[in-house]
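Journal club prep, shared notes

We agreed each person brings one worked example of a sequence with its structure written out as tokens. Mine is FAD-dependent oxidoreductase. I'm keeping it raw so we can talk through how to read the token line rather than staring at a rendered picture. Sequence first:
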Amino acid sequence: MSPTQVSPGTHIPVLVIGGGQAGLSVSHHLGAAGVDHLVVEKQTAVHAWADTRWDSFTLVTPNWHCRLPGYHYEGPDPDGFMTRDQVVEWLHGWLETFDPPLVEHTAATRLRRTGTGFEVTLAGPVGERTVTADEVVVATGGYPIPVIPPYASFLDPAVVQLHSEQYRNPDQLAEGAVLVVGSGQSGAQIAEDLHLAGRRVHLAVGNAPRVARFYRGRDCMTWLADMGLYDTPAQQYPGGKAAQEKTNHYVTGRDGGRDVDLRRFAAEGMRLYGTLTSGRDSELRFAPTLTDALDSADRVYNSICADIDRHIDAHGIDAPPPSRYSPVWAPETDPTSLDLAAEGITTIIWAIGYRPDYRWIEASSFDGAGHPMQTRGATEVPGLSFVGLPWMHTWGSGRFLGIDRDAKYLADGIIARHHASREERAS
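Then the structure, token by token:
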């Protein structure tokens, strides 16, 4: 289907909503099978990588993890970590290998089930139009809405507040100290970026675990891939649902890759706190959780190293000797308050994640928290599926390493149903 033919009332056999790498991977497989479909994207195909990552951003997974349909990383540094701009260039290279039926700057604002399929309202430069579809694949990302706590509006208006997706570099911020809230991958790396630039940084530490960048001669994520962790179905994953709901481990690919050690940052002058619980004007309150958070992160770090040790021993692999992380700093007490004005803090960066927003979908396919109820992307609503979600099938889901597998699984089901329907109509 030509995107220029999408007028009000158009019927689309398969509509893919979201033109990021997940939605376009489904399109790649559908196109190869000759299935008529359309992809709509509310911005541009690679905008999330180009527009919502900071300047010094790098992948935290090795380049060899970068695999999309018919297109794998083939550069000179498979064990390195692409920068933001390199990822954008790599994705553009992938898009040049096929011709997806993509309409950009067009958002799906309403999706409802009909007796024979779906009715979808699209809004774009040419105005609003309603189309119909037999099947819909939602590839809008797992968590599109940045989380900002409700008490943020009660803080001193002189302090500038940004979400992590708005942060670009230290020079963007006003002079003065910076409070980063959240120690997941984004928060920890942004705090490091500011720290390396010589800014005075305060960091509210959450419950994110950490992992060694390199261990016993290889990248830890390469070891974990060899151990099958990225291929283990969610139902069989050690730790079950609790493990899947944890924040991703913090580490960095910057400067060739290294650990992110919050204790070392603290020894160098960064101020650490526990979970931020409330605030008003210039006064912030924290739970006394810092010591436990740092200890827990280190336990996970050492536990992963121990798992790798067992893998090495079980397979008789020749590798450098094992080691364990020993703390280089510990808090004397857990701080429970902070005065923004007294500390000269002029900027707060919220790095506490995102939340789902599927209010535009009128279908009974969500749980009480607003997450899709799906099995490998398929829902109980006939013809409605999702792709690109974390833990959709494995730990690799939502990452470059697992996108092609997830997309192909969904596409294969759609292709089979499409051919069966065509044969039924022909008989």
